Each structure stands twice: as C-alpha cells, then as structure tokens.
Amino acid sequence: MKPWTLSLAGAALSATLSLPAFAQELSFYYPVAVGGPVTRIIDGMAADFEKEHPGIKIKPVYSGSYQDTITKVLTAAKGGDAPHIAVMLSTDMYTLIDEDVLVPFDEMAKTEADKTWMNSFYPGFMQNSQTGGKTWGIPFQRSTVVMYWNKDLFKEAGLDPNKPPQNWSELVDFGQKLTKRDAAGNVSTWGVQVPSSGFPYWLFQGFTTQNGAQLMNPAGTQTYYDKPEVVQALQFWMDLSQKHKVHPPGVVEWGTTPKDFFERKAAMIWTTTGNLTNIRSNAKFDFGVAMLPAGKQRGTPTGGGNFYVFKKSSAAEREASMKFIQWMTSPKRAAEWAIATGYVAVSPAAWDTPEMKKYLTDFPAPIVARDQLKHAVAELSTHENQRVTKALNDGLQAALTGAKPAQQALQDAQREADRILRPYR
Q1: Residue 406, pLDDT above cutoff 80
Q2: Is the sign of the CA dihedral 328, 361, 298, 243 positive or negative?
Q3: What's the CATH number for 18-143+303-373?
Q4: Is the pLDDT of residue 141 over 70?
Q5: Beta bridge partners of 24
Q6: Distance of CA 101 to the CA centre of its chain
Q7: 79/75 Cα distance (integer angstroms)
Q8: Which tens digits make up the pLDDT trace of 164-185?
Q9: By CB atoms within 10 Å of each CB, which of 3, 28, 342, 407 scores lowest?
C-alpha cells in the first residue's frame, strides 16, 4: 500500500498536509521486456524509494532489449521527449555523447558527498563510464564473463569436480575428456560452449584479453581488430571446434547456452555473471563458477548497464534524478540488487553490508566475479559503436562458420572500422 493511500474521510486534508505542492515525476527507461521477476524488483525498488522521498515519483518504462532501449531513447530525444533517466549499456556512452543528449554527472555533483559517491565504484566499471575528464554514466547492473562448470560431469569424466581449467591448455584437455560421443560420432555433451550470437565481440574480448591484446584505444577513435594477438585469439576459439572438436560448430546461440548447460549438453559454458541467479535456480546438479582460464594472462571484459541522465531535465528534475540514482546504487541497495539478479555489486562498500555477507556465507560464487575485476578491461566501445561493433561481430561469425580464415575476417573488420571512425580522428 502506498504511504498516501489513506481512509477516504481524511484523504483530502491529509494529502494537503503531507504531500509537497509539486511532486517531481521522473520517467525511467529500463531495458527489459514487460513482465518477469526483474520488472517486479524494479517496481518494488521504485516504490520503496517513493516512500522515503514522497516529493519524487518514479515512472518505470520497460523498453525492451538494450538495442530497443537506445533506439527508443534517441527517437524520443529527437522528438523532445527524452526520459529523465535510463539504464543503457555502458558501451552506449560515446553514442549518447555524440548525440548530445546527456548531462555529465560532474555538473550535477554539488557537494563533497556527491563527489565521494562518484568515486565509490570499482575502477574497472568506471572505464566505460568516463571519457574526456567527465563522468557520463554511473554503474548499476554490471557484469563480467565467467565460466560455469557441471561438477557431476567432471566426476563422470574422472576430473576433480572442484578444479576448473586454469589455462587454455587445460581448457582443451578437460574439454576432450568431457565431450561425449556415441559410436556414430554424434555429440550428446560438448566439453565447452562459448556463445557467438547476440554479443560475440564481448565473449571474444575474453580470449583477446587473455592473449594480451586490446581491441580499442581509450578515446574510442581506433580499433585493433587485425593485430597478431587478436588473430591468434580468434584462431584459438575456432580451434576449439574445428581442430580439438570440444566445442559446437558454427554460431552458438547466446540465449540457449544456459539451457544447454541445464540439459547437460555442455559441461562448461562462458556467460555473464548476470546469469548466476538463473543458473542457481535451474541447474539440477552441483555447479561451480570460475574466472575465465588464462592464456598469457587472465582476462575478461566488463559489461552491462549504467545509469544516464538526459539534458531535457530541469534543474529540479536533475536533482531528483541524482537522489534516485544515489539511492539505487547505495551499498545496501546495490547489495540487494546483486543478490536478486546475479549482477556484480558495483562498489566495495556493497560487499561489506550485512545482507551481502550473509548471502556469501551460504553461496560464495559471486566472489569470483568481484575478484576477477582486477583482470578486467573496458568493454569494446567507440564512437559509432553499434556499427564498429557490428563489423567485428560479422567478422567473428564469418570465421566461426568457416566462411573466412581468422586473419582475413579480422582484416576485413578492421578495414570497415577504420572507414567508420576516420571522421573522429
């Protein structure tokens, strides 16, 4: 029940006494299709915020996928009707800056407490939130790529169920022991599965970072798709399938990879920490969560969504937006959000809350993603990000399906990225 839902007799008088004359109503675009547990969590958090801040009303708008959300936000902004707040990909930062629709948080940070709050997040998550000396996004639902493994299948294969592969060589070796084939050669269980639809560049950044390669410069004006270390990383991904036969051939679907894991069709999978709660709820076997195996080094990209505030807001609306975002990312709320969803709690203070400490006592797996942050790099993000990323995704899928060798696929992708980014240099 809302705090202002009162008996009819005293409603008018009570409303006059208890509510401010002008409540700020903030539209909040959030990237999920309507329905499901996440919308219930967001609705509940918005209601709790309103109880504590009766002068501010939050209006969540569930805007579909991340791709749908940026399209809707930019369309609305062009029509003069941008939301006040949105959660969008951290990698959308350059696109939103180029479209001149954002307010940097530095302009809204009025007090020392505001500035302390802006410095309270993990540095790994701020790499995709800051550029040009300004903070454009605040981390909210952030993630890294981690590996999940089926401990029962490890036991059946004669492997230690508590020891995941630590490096690329062990990934291949374990994969060969875990892949199950019948007499005709048909595979019922693949040793390892890394999805290559949806976000192929993101999973690929695991391999490239492990091979000591960067995919872009910090200014978002240059990519390095065709560097030798990047080509080697792609060749290794291809070899898992084409040479070692431990990985499904062709393009592997992002959306069905957790289901394949539940159904024992894959013994080890790479996917987002954001799938942790899903896997914990649906896996009918003992599973483990590990950092990605090392090549020359450990490595993963960060991922996920940031809060952004839009220019159309009045000064009062910006102030209200800051209050909401600070509340949503406060240690207690960040811990609750991480526990409910599986995303990585975005500040060290969130890990020190009583709620998080109790949760980790029963289920220590989330610590893996937190500890992996020291090996994490910024997710691929440039100006014209969607087009530049598509060039790489197209190249990766051409290589993984056997349409092009690794070097040619990446040279073609780099040529296209150079063409797109030339005006920004």
Answers
A1: yes
A2: negative
A3: 3.40.190.10
A4: yes
A5: 56
A6: 22
A7: 6
A8: 999 999 999 999 999 999 999 9
A9: 3
What are the residue ranges spanned by the domains of the chain?
18-143+303-373, 144-302+378-424
Residue from 316, 237, 304 nearest 276 by CA: 304
Please tell me what DSSP assigns to residue 293: P
Distance of alpha carbon 370 from alpha carbon 40, whole angstroms: 26
Strand pairing report for 287-290 and 300-309: unpaired
Cα separation values, 153 from 38, 50, 135, 259, Å: 31, 48, 45, 16
* CATH of span 144-302+378-424: 3.40.190.10
Q: What is the largest CA-CA distance in the chain?
A: 80
49 phi and psi angles, rounded to 5 deg: -60, -45
pLDDT at 20 over 60: no
DSSP letter string, 65-130: SHHHHHHHHHHHHHTT---SEEEEEGGGHHHHHHTT-B--HHHH--SHHHHHHHT-S-HHHHTTTE
Band (pLDDT 50/70/90 cuts) for residue 213 is very high
Tell me what pLDDT residue 29 has: 96
* Segments in 161-283 forming alpha helices (H): 168-178, 200-210, 228-242, 257-262, 276-282
CB 254 within 8 A of CB 198: yes
Cβ-based neighbour number of residue 388 at 10 Å: 26
Please check the confidence at residue 249 and state whether its pLDDT lies above 60.
Answer: yes
The amino acid occupying position 419 is: R
